[in-house]
Amino acid sequence: MDRYVESESERGALGRGTESASAASVAPTEGEQDSGLWARFAHAASIESFCTSWLELQCRTIGPVEAGMILLGPADRGPFRPVATWPVKGHFLTHLSKTAEKTLKERREIVMRGGDGLVSTESGIGRYAIGRPIEAGGVIHGAAVFEVLSKSDENLQAMMRQLHWGAAWLELLFSREAVKTEKETRERIQAALDLVATSVGHDRFYESAMALVTALATKLQCDRVSVGFVTRGRTRVFAVSHSAEFKQQTNLIRSISEAMDEAVDQRETIVFPNGSPKTGVISRTHTELARQHGSVALCSVPLEALGTPIGALMLERPMDRPFDSKAIELCQSVAALAGPILETHRRDDRWLITKAADSVKYYLVSLVGPRHVALKVTTAAVVGLALFCFLAKGDYRVSAKTVLEPIVQRAAAAPFNGYIREAPVRAGDLVQAGQMLCTLDDRELRLERLKSLSKLEEYQKEYHKAMAEREAAKVEIVTAQMHQAQAEIALLDDQLAHTKVVAPFDGIVVTGDLSQQLGAPIEKGKVLFEVAPLDSYRLVIEVDERDIADVAVGQSGSLLLSAFPTEEIAVTVEKVTPVSTAKENRNFFRVEARFDQPHDRLRPGMEGAGKIEIDHRSLVWIWTHQIVDWMRLAAWSWLP
Known about the structure:
The chain has 15 helices and 24 strands. It is α+β, with helices and mostly antiparallel strands. It has four domains: 8-181, Beta-Lactamase (2-Layer Sandwich); 201-349, GAF domain (Beta-Lactamase), CATH 3.30.450; 410-531, CATH 2.40.50.100; 536-638, Elongation Factor Tu (Ef-tu), domain 3 (Beta Barrel), CATH 2.40.30. The protein has a six-stranded antiparallel β-barrel with strand order 11-20-23-22-21-24. Strands 2-1-5-4-3 form a five-stranded antiparallel β-sheet, with helices on both faces. Strands 7-6-10-9-8 form a five-stranded antiparallel β-sheet, with helices on both faces. A hairpin with an 8-residue loop joins strand 1 and strand 2. Helix 2 crosses helix 6 (153-200), helix 6 crosses helix 7 and helix 7 (205-220) runs antiparallel to helix 10.
């Protein structure tokens, strides 16, 4: 910005809302008639010249002013130093330092009388120090301090109001500077993002790097832009703008690599020939590169990712167009954004074995280095746990599902077709030998028996009549009919004797519940109840076929039933059946075991989990043998 204030025509365009403020700050006084002073104020080319002109105008405007001073410095941080004083020569302003310090500290207007080295004058005129902070957007940029003479409080208030209106010029100056800086920063960030976006839109690392350097060369009108990455302690040129192929052995590429090493080693931006932004930066290699390969302007910017140098950008221009501060800031912004992105692309676009080797190398370096205590402790714990698992041994036990079955189980079936009359017993009830389980309806049987008895009496009468008439043939026929009726009566008597279904022995009803089927018909031979004894059980362990080879008769084990999960029951293997059973998508063998101690709370049908103790083996083998066996079988089946 060449001008820091508005011209006369521009001030008229500020709007009627600021007309009074402008009029107050430019109130016609004798000092304002000096056209040369106003011209310097309107065309000030720097902040210092602007403040000098403003201070002189204010000292001539606000009233009797003995001295004035403006202090500026880094916003809200300081230190603040004088940039303009009035009068320029011949006045010592150290006595205003306390007022300035208090104004900056308290961030408000300060009026001091008497103290701070000030002396009251004669005739009732007082000597005052007025301090006003220069604030724009809530940020303190400095302070303006004046030494004035005033004979009344009203006069002092008028001076302060005049100073208040005049300070608007300084606030406007810094507001414009802030807007200008923000705009330049935003434009630089937008340009940097646009350049970095060219590398994000590619999947492969080389394509991303080539797109970035080409876009950067076009944006900054460079003859050549190169990007290199650190490999084994040296920077290697990876991509050159507008060049699909190049050889690493050429003198130019080697010189560019050495110049990149110079920037990477110092981790500083190196500019030739204007010099680097920071003093003390060595640029000998850049000077040699410019001398050997033509008079060119160079700018090398290191690339970093996670605080570690990974490479550098090298930009080349003709000597008549050296790199200015804006171009350097843009290059630094692009490097800061593109560094992590390119590093991520580079790491992803590698062979898998290279990634694994780098991971192992990084792990080993971290393991033996002075830091990464958590990694060392974790590694030591893992190694210790692995050694323990390999060397320690534990009980190898085969786990399997278990089912409790009775040794004997009797079925009570229907003796004939009939109807259920009574069913006082159902599954789960304890019964004794001979106890009635249910009763069948016998009314039809009794009627049939009476009918058969009647037929028998008729046949007996016919028999006696035939005997009296000496009819031998009829006697034979009637005799056969009598035998038939007697057989029917005997059958009905037997059925009547079995209308009550009784328990065959003491035990528990395992299945059967006819209490909801009274009066329902049943067919002959239908199983009505199943009864099992209470003191004789068979424990069946369903051992998977992968573990059956380790199971043998006589091995001990333990059992936990779902009904008693806190009570461990000792068992002994009694029989291993040689036939497998397919169930629930798996094959298992039935292994029968007996209880070492009798238990009165066991019931048939209970299920649980059983473990058969085999021997002592290493913990690693116990935990991994199944997956190892599966992998061995799968590999053998896949091999030709």
